[in-house]
UniProtKB/TrEMBL annotation:
GO biological-process terms attached to the record: monoatomic ion transmembrane transport
Subcellular location: Cell outer membrane
Keywords assigned by UniProt, alphabetized: Cell outer membrane, Ion transport, Membrane, Porin, Signal, Transmembrane, Transmembrane beta strand, Transport
Membrane topology per record: Multi-pass membrane protein
Gene Ontology CC terms: cell outer membrane; pore complex
Gene3D superfamilies, A to Z: Porin
Signal peptide segment: 1-20
Assembly and binders: Homotrimer.
InterPro entries per record: Gram-neg_bact_OMP, Gram_neg_porin_domain, Porin_dom_sf, Porin_Gram-ve, Porin_Neis
Protein name as catalogued: Porin domain-containing protein
Organism: Noviherbaspirillum autotrophicum
Porin domain residues: 7-314
Molecular function, one GO term: porin activity
Length: 340
């Protein structure tokens, strides 16, 4: 209760600031859906629920900037996530678990310090026809669902956009006593957008030191979207490695994404996705997801959506909510999303 009251007090104070300064924005998303999930078990496998954030996680945030003169400006973003079906926080004790950073911007590009998106996840979100949401969320499959979304203690530098090219690097301090390298992470993102072509590359390396084992997790992703008029073609490839000094603990994944998205009338978008997760070091541990979806804009801020997916797991795989290895889950949802 005390944490909740504190959160409201901070948000109220920031909202007061927002009303006094035109460069501070209060924004948010409310997303809720009726969901059906069958985990593939022989009995009692079906669940019906009203869930939060099926297309986009519900949130409230504050962002703004200050002109410092000479082409230099300061910026910040604070973002809190919550369950729209219950009002409960999704932040596991954090006040602003989705975003919490401050930065400087200028002709040199931008520098941001704090909790923020991982460049790898941003690259995947650009290519996924479902925009890493709904039942076709590619992040649930790529790297066996272990792709990093955000990182704490992050220093991020983004170059100025030039002739369609963009790029960013991030470094995550491990904050381990006596060691600069233990538990550190770093990432890279490069993009190129020109006319109908959108190409994205992302990389993330996480070093985890927890005696007696040392583990390096490495993810790489490259993908492209081509708009050929009536529809967009989506193609992605990912490679993930978990390298450990514990014998037999190494895991390697390869992932492929093939997708299609197309406008339906003036307000609708249909999506189709095929994703293959291939585990190279474990027998019979591959998974395949097929998903279809549709979103329809009722206005600039409000939309309805639906999606359906089915995941086929090999006998040693259990991705996307399967009850056990070898089970094949099915997901279906119908939802409403409002932005403010």
């Amino acid at each position: 209760m005390k944490k909740t009251l504190l959160a409201f007090a901070v948000m109220g104070a920031l909202a007061g600031t927002a009303s006094a300064q035109s460069n501070v924005t209060v924004y948010g998303v409310l997303d809720i859906a009726l969901n059906y999930a069958d985990n593939g078990a022989a009995a009692n496998s079906r669940t019906y629920s009203l869930d939060n954030g099926t297309q986009l996680p519900s949130r409230i945030g504050f962002k703004g900037s200050e002109d410092l003169g000479g082409g230099l400006s300061a910026s910040f973003q604070l973002e809190n996530g919550f369950n729209s079906d219950s009002g409960a926080s999704t932040q596991t004790g954090r006040l602003f678990g989705r975003q919490a950073w401050v930065g400087l911007n200028g002709g040199f590009g931008s520098v941001k310090l704090g909790r923020q998106w991982a460049p790898l996840f941003l690259a995947l979100a650009e290519i996924d026809p479902f925009e890493v949401g709904l039942a076709g969320d590619a992040s649930l499959m790529f790297g066996a669902g272990s792709y990093p979304l955000r990182t704490d203690n992050t220093i991020n530098y983004s170059i100025p956009a030039m002739n369609g090219f963009s790029g960013q690097v991030s470094y995550v301090l491990g904050e381990s006593p006596g060691s600069f390298s233990d538990n550190r992470q770093y990432g890279l993102g490069v993009g190129y957008v020109n006319g109908p072509i959108n190409v994205q590359f992302g990389y993330h390396n996480a070093n985890t030191t927890a005696a007696p084992s040392v583990t390096d997790t490495k993810h790489a992703f490259i993908g492209a979207v081509y708009n050929f008029g009536p529809a967009k073609a989506h193609l992605g490839y990912g490679d993930s490695k978990l390298e450990s000094n514990t014998p037999g603990a190494n895991v390697k994944n390869r992932n492929w994404l093939l997708g299609l998205s197309a406008p339906v009338g003036s307000a609708g978008t249909a999506m189709l996705s095929y994703i293959r997760n291939n585990v190279r070091d474990v027998s019979d541990a591959n998974s395949t997801l097929v998903a279809i979806g549709y979103t329809h804009a009722l206005s600039k801020r409000t939309s309805v959506y639906t999606s359906l997916s089915h995941t086929s797991n090999d006998s040693s795989a259990a991705l996307n909510g399967a009850a056990a290895n070898g089970n094949d889950p099915t997901l279906f949802n119908v939802g409403l999303r409002h932005k403010f």
